[in-house]
Amino acid sequence: MHEGGLWSEVDVVQRTGSTNSDLVARAAEGRAAEGAVLVAEEQTAGRGRLDRQWTAPPRSGLFFSVLLTPGEVPVERWGWLPLLTGVAVATGLSRAAGVDTALKWPNDLLVTVRGEERKAGGILAERAGDGGVVIGVGINVTLKEDELPVPTAGSLGLAGAVSTDRDPLLRGVLRALEEWYGKWRAARGDAGACGLLEAYAAGCATLGREVRAELPGDRAVVGEAVAVDGDGRLVLATGEGVQEPVGAGDIVHLRPA
């Protein structure tokens, strides 16, 4: 990390339950400042959205969390942080691993393995106290077919990465995250003004597809994903001719783009 940059400290632990839980706790106790990065060689209780488990063999992936305190950005725009992180991860991996990745709204990282789209990573954002957000990233790096948690999962190695050395991969992702976070903060969270909205839409595999959004309260909406709006919500054009923005929920891709 470079002098005067965002990343104030990088702490690597051999094993922990969840880097997100640990960093949220450190922030609450005043033991972590903005730019703290916590990396684990192995996570035993990693979490995805909706408290799903995320497990992988030791040293097979990148598992890390960062603490951000975007005080000058209105809180209603903080929902862009997981999407911003997705753009940064895709940018960093393209540069460092030579792998084309795509983003599934809102927080999945997709790679192509033998012509098939597979999930190779995920992003989880959690509030940390009044003014902070901890963002966790998990990326399958070297997992082989027989190590995948589910057949629909993938890894950078299976997708033909030119490098699976986790140190330059981490540095590449953190560098891209610092760049995008700086632009977004300077624009006070205006994703359109800083180019984030355009970059996210360009890399989003969900747009142009027929999808089913499984929403809170056991409600589902089926439609074509036509846009991401200024608040980071996915806009669905339904069969009834209605455009419905979705701010939270599980998205199922029903057909190829």
UniProtKB/TrEMBL annotation:
Alphabetical keyword list: Biotin, Ligase
Record-linked CDD domains: BPL
UniProt-listed Enzyme Commission number(s): 6.3.4.15
GO molecular function: biotin--[biotin carboxyl-carrier protein] ligase activity
Gene Ontology CC terms: cytoplasm
InterPro entries, per database record: aa-tRNA-synth_II/BPL/LPL, Biotin_CoA_COase_ligase, BPL_C, BPL_LPL_catalytic
Broad enzyme group: ligase
Domain BPL/LPL catalytic: 1-185
Pfam families with a match to the protein in the record: BPL_C, BPL_LplA_LipB
Name of this protein: biotin--[biotin carboxyl-carrier protein] ligase
Organism per entry: Streptomyces afghaniensis 772
Lineage: Bacteria, Bacillati, Actinomycetota, Actinomycetes, Kitasatosporales
